[in-house]
Amino acid sequence: MGTYKESGAATFWSYTLNLPLSSNSMICWKFCYLLHKVLRGGHRNVVRDSHRYCRNVKDMGVLWGSLHDRYGQIVALSAKFLCLKMEFHAKHKLIPGNLEASDETLDKETGNDKNKVLDMTQELMEYLDAGLKMEETVLRQLDANGAKSDTPAGQCRLTPLIPLVLDCSFLYHFTVLLMFKLHSCKRHINVFFLFNRAIVLDKALKRNNHILCFTGMAPDILLGHRERFRDLFNSLKQFFDRARETEFFKTVIQIPDLPDAPPNFLRASALAEYKRAVVVIPNEERTDGEEAEQQPETREAPQMPQAEVEEERNYKQMAMVEKEHLRMEVEGLRCANVANVGAQIGYKEADHRAQSAELRFTQLKERHAELITSHADLMKKNAETVKLFSGTKHGHDDLLRSKQQLEIELENLRRENSNMMNQQQQEFQRLNKELLEQRAQLALLRSTLDNKDMEGSQVSSSLAALHAEREVLLRSAREKDAELSSLRQQAQQQQGSQDLERDRLLRELEALRAQLQQQLTINAEQKLEIDRLRRELDSTRSELNRANGALQSREMSGTQLSSSLAGLQAEREVLLHSMRDQDAELNSLRQQAQLHHSSLEQERQRSSMEVGSLHAQIQQQACREGELTQKLQDEQFCLLQCAVVEAEGIILDAVAKLDDPIHLSCISSPDYLINRAEITLGSIDKMQQSHVVYLGNRNDASGLLRAVTQFSHLTADTIVNGAATSHSAPTDQADRLTDSCRDCANHCLQFLKDLKIQASLQRADPSAVRFTVQRLLGLAQDLRPKGQDLQKGELGYLVDKEMIATSTAIEEAVLRMDEIMNQAKRDTSGIQLEVNQSILGSCSDLMKAVHMLVTASADLQKDIVEGGRGGASVTEFYGKNSRWTEGLISASKAVGWGATQLLDSADRVVAEKGAYEELIACSHEIAASTAQLLAASKVKADRKQQEAAHPEAGLASR
């Protein structure tokens, strides 16, 4: 009512813009319901005023659609439906917001432009699809929550579906009419004429410009529209069936039954069989019923003749329509009268149609006779009606008026029938004349064709083949065009959805960044406030310390007074025994002491009160500090939740690439996946450390925020590269890689979910994520080509290099051992010198023995290579026996490293900086290394070569 008073919705929007729509989903849901009611029942300018705020409603829907709230999803779908509603009515201003428009209004809005009809049909389907998705989500959530329709929670969700049911009924009706209009082919009568035949025929007689000519489209082009309409019909039928069974809708609205199957748009007569689905609200139906009951019963009798007159008029109009069809068919046959092979078939069809026209004309004559008979019956009924209501003056007057009206209409009908019969007779004669002329021409053509029958047989066969080939090519072209159009539509839809998703993610990112900056600012302010409170607390503590010092000094003075009082009492006793005359003076002194004691007690009480007040202030400060700390912890946890939500988005984006067909062209190497997995394992360790630090001090979550960000990016990178690596891997390993990537994403999302919830924050553990990443690392290492680190030509060179390096290291160690011994002789003496000489001598002997062993091992290897390589080169022999070569390299490195460690340990022991256990450990290490080198050398050696190596082995064992 307010919108009608002010002729718009300015006041409505001025109030609704101040509502907390971005913080309360329940308010958003009720706002969408209210806006829907205003758009349906408000002033016609409401759509124009509300369309300005369409962007706000759309942003609100995007915001709640991205949040996991119980009303968030249905608010997003409702906002999308309302935006489509406002855009549709803003574009088509003739159709009101409540969609209660007549068929003529819809026809006027679409016109004769088939492109405009096609666009409006698509808009209506999108309009209806948005509403059906909204109701489907509402009912699914209602079932998931287990709520009843008669409870407040259920009614809160179901009430906004009442105007949606009304909208869906009108949208379904409009879509059916436009689909029939799109499928009509050169019908000179509007598609809406067949739906409301009596009314439109009456107007067609008075207004010839209402008869339109609309050239329809090919059925194959509209295949996608029919499929989409079938899906919408099934969804709408399920919605109406479910709503009729719901207890809540039974009391507030009456929902009609839809047919079992959608209309067949390829059959023109299906429009006459179509029945409009009308939704009725009981209050409105009751009002209409009361108005109908108030009409006098005497008006029922004249309605029967009126209905028959209308039926007669309909039959007359149908006859005119059939006549027009016949005329068009004859004109088409005349235009098709050409001298070719197909002319014979055309004339046969013309002959058949002429016979059909004669049959129809005969049927029209019979129908005219029936009409005359019905007129006579009508006159009899009128006479009976006059006799029946002659008793009352009011009824008599009504009957006289109806009789006069019927007589006038009958006279008009007779005149129209006679004119129509004359016209039809003339038209039939003209058609017969044209048919005779065409038959004569046909006979002439037949004689010509008989003469050229032999010459045209080959042409006919080739023409038939060409026609068949042409039909095949046309059919394939139509199929290709349909596929191309569907692919274009899919590509446009996907591009649009991707653009919308990208815009939504950018907006969410900007919002999160703004929230993060705001939280950081608030955090800095709180830190300043905490510092100020700490300074106040320090000053309060210093004041308390000063008060405690004063109290202690006063207690000491009280103790001194007590001791002096005891002395005075002793003196009083002495004076009592010695001098009785000084009792008065002693009494006065006693009184003074008591006064002083009372003042001291008062001072103590006052100090106790001051201390109590100071303790209360300290407790208040502690409580305030605790509140600030709790607030700081809550804000830090809020920041952590924001970071975790962003991390979940990153992980989900990485998981989406696993099933993205565009990502199939991306390929990664196992080495890069190994690099990513190793870095991710390091980030997991850092994440675990930051988590432990945050649990110990929840006032600062900066370290955990950085760890979460790094962890999410690296994990997502590992998942994406794992998927890319699987594209070039064998099938089994590719499946294991993909499954491991999914497991990694699931465990990562579970870990982030635990971090996001306060109750599960303590038990959040990334061990499962670490295990899956390690499994990815192992799979990547299995995918690496074996022996790719070194070329076969480099193995022999590397063996010689390592053996030379080992010999050089041992020789340097022997020389260095001599230098250490000389230094020990200069710096030490006595028993210490003997011990050092013994140690260094043993080490020197050991190094010399190892040097001999390395030399013997090198000679043995040369013998093995020369004896086993045959006609191949040394490099090819090492490359062929790559594992044996790698064992030699490893053993040589171990021997050289052990010699270096033994030298360093001996130097530290002589300098009294090391322990003898280090020498023992180094000697054991050298023994193991020499055993490894000996074993590696003897693997390829024959019996004679092994016997030659036995003395060196014995030397090494000593």
Automatic annotation (TrEMBL):
Q: Which residues form the signal peptide?
A: none
- One GO molecular-function entry: phosphatidylinositol-3,4-bisphosphate binding
What Gene Ontology cellular component terms go with this record? clathrin-coated vesicle; cortical actin cytoskeleton
Please report the stretch or stretches of sequence annotated as the ENTH domain. Answer: 1-96
Localization terms from the record: Cytoplasm
GO BP, sorted A to Z: actin filament organization; clathrin coat assembly; endocytosis
**The keyword Coiled coil belongs to this UniProt entry's keyword annotation:** yes
Q: Which UniProt keywords apply?
A: Actin-binding, Coiled coil, Cytoplasm
Q: Which PROSITE patterns match?
A: ENTH, I_LWEQ
**Which residues are in coiled coils?**
396-448, 474-550
Tell me the ranges covered by the I/LWEQ domain, including all copies.
787-958
Where are the stretches annotated Disordered? 284-309
What is the similarity comment for this entry? Answer: Belongs to the SLA2 family.
* Official protein name in the record: Huntingtin interacting protein 1 related
Instruction: State the species of origin.
Output: Dissostichus mawsoni
